[in-house]
UniProtKB/TrEMBL annotation:
It comes from Citrus sinensis. This is PORR domain-containing protein.
Amino acid sequence: MKQKSTGGWRSKKKIYRRVHELDRVMELQKKPSLILQLKSIIQSQKQKCLLLRDLEKQVGFVHKWNFMAVIEKYPSIFHVGGGSNRKPPFVTLTEKAEKIANEEEVARELMEPILVKNLRKLLMMSVDCRVPLEKIEFIESELGLPQDFKKAFLPKYGDFFTVKDTNGKPYLYLQNWDASLAVTAREERLAREGVLDSAGAQKRVRITKDGNYSGPNAFKICFPTGFRPNTSYLEQLERWQRMEFPSPYLNARRFELADPKARKRVVAVLHELLSLTMEKRMTSAQLDAFHSEYMLPHKLLLCLIKHHGIFYITNKGARSTVLLKEAYDGSNLIDKCPLLLCNDKFVALSGRREINSCNGKSLS
């Protein structure tokens, strides 16, 4: 009889395989994030000029030194002047940097229809077509919303959104349902590939060793390098890939989570949520914050780990972050919205290769 110590009574411990290229996504964002944050601070000043003595008030004592290092390292972006008795030291954008920074206004204008569409879809997926306003604020930068979106953005689109107090808390409500928007990013990709059009007359296709299957209910699978699934695993995955499931845009209250189809629907909800963000990623805390609005499983982490061919969890950076694997080619985000393209152009002034180079497509 096998001894327990040999593992005869236990299944092998599953190891979560790291994807170094996706871990690098967070590492590569550190310096650009500082550059873009400092740019925003300078532009928010009346004279578009920041006294260095006021930098600490903006970012705190500890982070001040990180920003000082950035100012010193990138004279092509930040110009330091003053220092005499008449005028204390200050920092402004260089002429070239300011010219590119001013292009952000055009990028923001191009973003508006994208933001309206994505925010409507976000509300359409929620169980009551409403989300607490504080939760929208929690992911405003991930969505690409302007910081003053409550005052400047929402009032412009009163036909689509309204803010109401519910149980003493402000909620963002969807004004009207639009069936044309109830199409997921996954379905749009399959339509582009012609899978949905030919699904009815499709021949039986077996799943490949990389986990992918050409079918209307299938998800794009990206296994980590070195992962070699056995036949049993692939057979189970094929059954799962073939399984029909309800749309994320149908009310979640209609389904029992114990139903395998409803569990697959949860994967589709998470996939769609990440697809609605600019960089196809959210922190674990941000995803978990929407637990009640989208009726996500209590063991959300286990769900994400189980579907490691679709989602990737990285602990690099300040917070645990969930990325949509298919959205990345190595460490590079494949499709970019106008705002990210503008940010990349600005960061490129630092002399480093543009972060997450892309093919120029937008989030339309």
